[in-house]
């Protein structure tokens, strides 16, 4: 947690402390002093613009980094909508990148091409790149070679160092690159900033050990590390005391939480402190962690992301059924419905196991909304394999699904597999799959119309300011007429119309 007392005692005229978080507090203060001088000479505060690609983990990392920037004295801004697009003249531009699919990388290079011209017009702009894409050697080389105007590059393991890297850049006026190959100490005691004051994510673990054959995540986010339960609970309690009522517990594979605790004394090589020092008594699995978080007074809703079917235990289903704060939604990535393809994907479950898991979940939680991820066009995927995926979609009935076209990621085992599926075949399968998913989800959505549900009001509607957008426990979105001062509160909404991906509703209370 943020340690204000420590922060206040840091002396910025002495040398930088070696230990964390004192070291980062020192650099935040140093940068703050610099930002104040800049503000005075410019006659305005410094501005920042941050764009985040990818998953919830990246979104959480960006919350941490923008909090650091705001502590330093940057304010959001420096982006102007123009007739022919956007103009950016922010003093600090941060791209938190994703590399899970090739098109995410292309997007970043597109942004950089655009920023090159913006920086010519606004030379004091500092451009920083971080996140998953920056953990790849080829991409770093490309940035070094072709994008000399990028000022700061760092990866996924050292986002906490933003202030230190910025200070180094300011004082050296040179490009600063600091990408760690391995995870080091996890520094959590940084300032917090939330997109919504009433809901946020909490990291419970980092990295992934699963090595699904198509996926680059284990290579760019490292091995699985679980945070201590007491540390997580402390963070949740502190967030609740600041007004948060909905928490999303975050990890690449939350169901294996707790399997990666390591004794201090069995880990002398890393100096003992680097990897999750957790005593035997403290060790809990994910189901128990849910039960403990459920006890936090003042908290209303608990979500979690992402579940791997192979680690989803009956104990967890029981915890979900008995913990009143756990939301009525489960994201359960399928990836493929073909047992043959699942084996090649190294997913450690087959079609039957997935379907029986869904049955067990629906037995205990009959109204639960299930969502999923599906990849189309994995190497060697035949029409028969694809029809197995369609069959699972039919049998499960997902409320929604993220569908992806397989993207070859160099360095992963699937990149070396034969049987590339032609583009036109993939497109045609992709469209058929979307159609099938929508037909099933329409029916599920329609069945709830007329019912009254509790919803958390999240924001004023983008298109109609007399309306607000709210989210049901099952994660469905509903738009309704309600005053803006209900934002952050729980209301009862009657669903009156199904619009396919969302509802129109009426406020009941
Ligand atoms: N190609 C396409 N989709 C992928 N995903 C991960 N790696 C790839 C890839 N190489 C998808 C998976 C995962 C989601 C976050 O991204 O479906 O669950
Ligand atoms: Fe990637 Fe598989 Fe880990 Fe998910 S579980 S991050 S798909 S390797």
Commentary on this structure:
The chain is built from 14 helices and 21 strands. It is of the alpha/beta class and 509 residues long. Helix 9 runs parallel beside helix 10 (314-322). The chain is globular and about 65 Å long. The protein is 35% helix and 21% strand. The longest helix is centred in the C-terminal third of the chain and has 25 residues, at 423-447. It binds 5'-deoxyadenosine and iron/sulfur cluster. Iron/sulfur cluster (SF4) binds at residues 208, 210-212, 215, 217-218, 252-253, 308.
Q: Largest sheet, described in full?
A: 6 strands, parallel
Q: What would you call the structural class?
A: alpha/beta
Work out the strand percent. Answer: 15-25%
- Read across the widest sheet, the strand sequence of neighbours is 2-1-5-6-7-8
Name the helicity range.
Answer: 25-40%
Q: Please tell me what the overall shape is.
A: globular
Q: Report low-confidence residues grouped into runs of 5 or more.
A: 263-275
On the 0 to 100 scale, the average pLDDT is 92
Ligands and ions found: 5'-deoxyadenosine, iron/sulfur cluster
The first-to-last residue Cα distance is 36 Å
Radius of gyration: 24 Å
Number of helices: 14
> What's the total number of strands?
21
């Amino acid at each position: 947690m943020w340690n204000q007392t420590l922060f206040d005692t840091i002396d910025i005229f002495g040398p930088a402390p070696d230990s964390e978080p004192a070291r980062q507090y020192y650099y935040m203060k140093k940068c703050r002093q610099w930002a104040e001088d800049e503000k005075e000479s410019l006659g305005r505060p410094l501005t920042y613009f941050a764009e985040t690609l990818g998953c919830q983990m990246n979104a959480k990392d960006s919350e941490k980094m923008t909090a650091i920037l705001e502590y330093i004295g940057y304010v959001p801004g420096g982006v102007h909508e123009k007739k022919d697009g956007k103009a950016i003249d922010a003093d600090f531009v941060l791209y938190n990148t994703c590399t899970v699919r090739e098109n995410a990388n292309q997007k970043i290079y597109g942004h950089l091409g655009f920023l090159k011209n913006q920086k010519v017009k606004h030379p004091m702009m500092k451009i920083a790149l971080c996140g998953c894409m920056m953990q790849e050697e080829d991409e770093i080389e490309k940035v070094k070679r072709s994008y000399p105007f990028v000022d700061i590059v760092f990866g996924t393991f050292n986002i906490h160092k933003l202030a230190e890297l910025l200070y180094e850049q300011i004082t050296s006026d040179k490009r600063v690159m600091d990408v760690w190959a391995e995870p080091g100490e996890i520094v959590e005691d940084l300032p917090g900033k939330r997109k919504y004051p009433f809901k946020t994510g909490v990291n419970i673990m980092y990295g992934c050990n699963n090595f699904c054959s198509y996926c680059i995540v284990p290579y760019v986010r490292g091995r699985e590390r679980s945070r201590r339960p007491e540390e997580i609970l402390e963070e949740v309690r502190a967030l609740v005391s600041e007004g948060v009522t909905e928490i999303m517990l975050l990890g690449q594979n939350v169901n294996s939480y707790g399997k990666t605790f390591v004794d201090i004394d069995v880990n002398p090589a890393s100096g003992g402190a680097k990897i999750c020092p957790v005593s035997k008594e403290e060790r809990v699995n994910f189901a128990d962690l849910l039960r403990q978080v459920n006890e936090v007074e003042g908290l209303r809703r608990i979500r979690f992301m992402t579940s791997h079917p192979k680690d989803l235990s009956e104990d967890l289903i029981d915890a979900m059924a008995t913990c009143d704060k756990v939301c009525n939604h489960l994201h359960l990535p399928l990836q493929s419905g073909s047992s043959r393809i699942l084996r090649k994907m190294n997913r450690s479950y087959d079609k039957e196991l997935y379907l029986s898991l869904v049955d067990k979940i629906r037995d205990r939680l009959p109204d639960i909304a299930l969502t999923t991820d599906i990849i189309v066009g994995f190497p060697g995927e035949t029409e028969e394999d694809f029809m197995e995926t369609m069959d699972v979609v039919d049998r499960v009935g997902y409320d929604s699904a993220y569908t992806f076209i397989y993207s070859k990621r160099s360095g992963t085992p699937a990149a070396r597999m034969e049987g590339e599926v032609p583009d036109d075949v993939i497109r045609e399968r992709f469209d058929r799959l979307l159609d099938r998913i929508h037909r099933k989800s329409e029916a599920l959505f329609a069945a709830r119309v007329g019912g009254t549900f509790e919803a958390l009001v999240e924001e004023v509607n983008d298109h109609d300011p007399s309306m607000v957008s709210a989210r049901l426990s099952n994660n469905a979105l509903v738009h309704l007429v309600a005053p803006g001062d209900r934002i952050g509160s729980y209301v009862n909404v009657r669903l009156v119309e199904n619009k396919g991906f969302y509802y129109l509703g009426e406020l009941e209370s």
